[in-house]
């Protein structure tokens, strides 16, 4: 995409509408707005517009729409699929100044927040008020809630609380033409017509720009229990998951599984990560439970864990005796965030699969990568209780990673196993060529119809997720 012939007029109109701190051009454009964390090449947008009010977001979109200039919404810039990455000839609409907690309604157990507010800020404010925000990501300090909702983020506790969309009761969205649709509902039960918020959650800024949201709050956990288990085979992993769901019920908050290749990379290659369990095991499982009463729920967790030992599902385990122990357990799982440093440039994948098929997939995927990409190392781990598997693949020491070959092999294997190419990170730019591996022609056509209805001039994040021209041609 090249610059629109009216781009100069558009920027002039934006400068006339907003102050110099809101519209940044040329050398004033910060580096943070030139790239997200998807490893795509850096690109300078035509301008960066940083409104600090919802109406300001709507006004910026109205101006861009009137001039036919494309807009790329940006939040914390922590996305991994290129959804917020700049595109040539477009203006970046950054929500970095649209921050703040507007209200905590204790009776309704809701929080109304602006879209640019970092997730960690929201977590802390909820905690101080005696509530709990279950959404949690490694990028919590940088990612913004608007981007979390735009990608329908998952995280570590989906097995209990669901994806990001399960947190949302109300939403405010600026549409492509500058209309500000405010629907800040606080009620759990509200069947008055279409549930419009669901159109925008997970749409990655291609249908509208989220400006505010009403989040559902949960009771603050009174206690957290954790165990890191060594398990001898994948059949036992699946049985352990079933047993945790049955034995712990609503207490179960996380069920993370790490294959041996990942375990070695995390506990040997990443500095400061200790092994809670020694010896070699076929799988390493982190089980977390959250309760309200430490005595009652702690005993229940201990009793359940002992029963799993008795049935032979667990070969060895370490049980957290303190918050520090639990954090150390999670450190093994969060070590993936340091692979870029210790392993070097790599290809990262976020896929979804039927739980029972995950180990078969891992074996098939690893075999293909080793056979077709000489020297390829791949490691496997993820939120198995949610059907979400992560993969890191690379040729160590290679000057340039054979990304296209690795992507093709992984996504072809995902398609063969009936999985999804994106479980929680979105489609953006990087996964768009493979969206048809997980969606039927009829689904893609309906997505294009919705996109055309809400953004008829295709100015919102064009080329991301769904391509109107390609769908029209098909």
Automatic annotation (TrEMBL):
One GO MF term: FAD binding
UniProt-listed GO biological process terms: respiratory electron transport chain
A Pfam short name: FAD-oxidase_C
Domain FAD-binding PCMH-type stretches: 41-220
Protein name: FAD-binding oxidoreductase
Family affiliation: Belongs to the FAD-binding oxidoreductase/transferase type 4 family.
PANTHER family for the chain: D-2-HYDROXYGLUTARATE DEHYDROGENASE, MITOCHONDRIAL
Cofactor(s) this protein cannot do without: FAD
Source organism, top-level taxon: Bacteria
InterPro entries assigned: FAD-bd_oxidored_4_C, FAD-bd_PCMH, FAD-bd_PCMH-like_sf, FAD-bd_PCMH_sub1, FAD-bd_PCMH_sub2, FAD-linked_Oxase-like_C, FAD-oxidored/transferase_4, Oxid_FAD_bind_N
Key words, A-Z: FAD, Flavoprotein, Oxidoreductase
